[in-house]
């Protein structure tokens, strides 16, 4: 087992970031890692920012990820990806959903949604992998599967043992939703 790896998961309340962190944690536990998960809830019930830290490795003392420490940023929404970018270490990976969810200032017309966010991140010393997770989730059978699509897209880059992830998915998803989520995971894996 190698050094401690840090994954920051960011999104908007209701997108399933917490389930994504549970799937990641379960997969790394199955691999034999020490895992720590920390959750920061904003106004999650009202579409506010939600941040989850997942750290895993031989021995992990804290779930907290400081600026410049994240190996991977898994972003469920573009603006949330831009906000969290300072936490990604140079050369780190950003797996970002291409979806845009308007924050309240945009909804009220006080501001416009910033354009070119993912493209701007590419010039910041990180590898950006955009994923149209919403389209893939719809292909899998439900818009709610965006989180599992994104986990699939990230999983192949973290640990290429697909069976490990599918077992973790089975641990975390109710049986009646497993088949659809497995399809979403596989679509993300191939993205």
Question: Could you give a quick summary of the protein structure above?
Answer:
By secondary structure, the protein is an alpha/beta fold. It has helices at residues 17-30, 78-84, 104-107, 117-122, 133-140, 146-158, 162-172, 175-189; strands at residues 5-12, 34-41, 49-57, 70-75, 88-97, 127-131.
The CATH first-level class comes to Alpha Beta
CATH third-tier fold name: Pyruvate-ferredoxin Oxidoreductase, domain 3
Describe the global form.
globular
Indicate the percent of residues in helices. 40-55%
| Secondary structure category | alpha/beta
Query: What is the number of strand segments?
Result: 6
Strand content: 15-25%
Oligomer: single chain
The side-by-side strand order for the widest beta sheet comes to 2-3-1-4-5-6
Give me the CATH architecture, please: 3-Layer(aba) Sandwich
Taking all Cα atoms into account, the compactness measure Rg is 16 Å
Mean pLDDT: 90
Number of helices: 8
Give the low-pLDDT segments. Answer: none
> Helix and strand succession?
EHEEEHEHHEHHHH
CATH superfamily: Pyruvate-ferredoxin oxidoreductase, PFOR, domain III
> What is the total domain count?
1
């Amino acid at each position: 087992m190698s050094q401690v790896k840090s994954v920051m998961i960011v999104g908007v309340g209701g997108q399933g970031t917490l389930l994504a962190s549970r799937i990641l944690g379960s997969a790394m536990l199955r691999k034999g890692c020490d895992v720590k998960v920390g959750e920061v809830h904003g106004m999650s019930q009202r579409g506010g920012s939600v941040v989850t830290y997942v750290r895993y490795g031989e021995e992990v003392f804290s779930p907290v990820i400081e600026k410049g420490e994240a190996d991977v940023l898994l972003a469920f929404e573009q603006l949330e990806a831009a906000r969290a970018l300072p936490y990604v270490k140079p050369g780190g990976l950003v797996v970002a959903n291409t979806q845009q969810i308007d924050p309240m200032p945009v909804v009220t017309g006080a501001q416009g949604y910033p354009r070119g966010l993912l493209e701007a991140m590419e010039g910041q010393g990180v590898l950006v992998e955009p994923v149209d997770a919403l389209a893939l989730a719809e292909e899998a059978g439900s818009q709610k599967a965006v989180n599992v699509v994104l986990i699939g897209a990230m999983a192949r880059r973290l640990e290429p043992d697909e069976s490990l992830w599918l077992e973790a998915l089975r641990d975390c998803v109710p049986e009646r939703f497993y088949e659809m989520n497995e399809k979403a995971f596989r679509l993300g894996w191939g993205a």
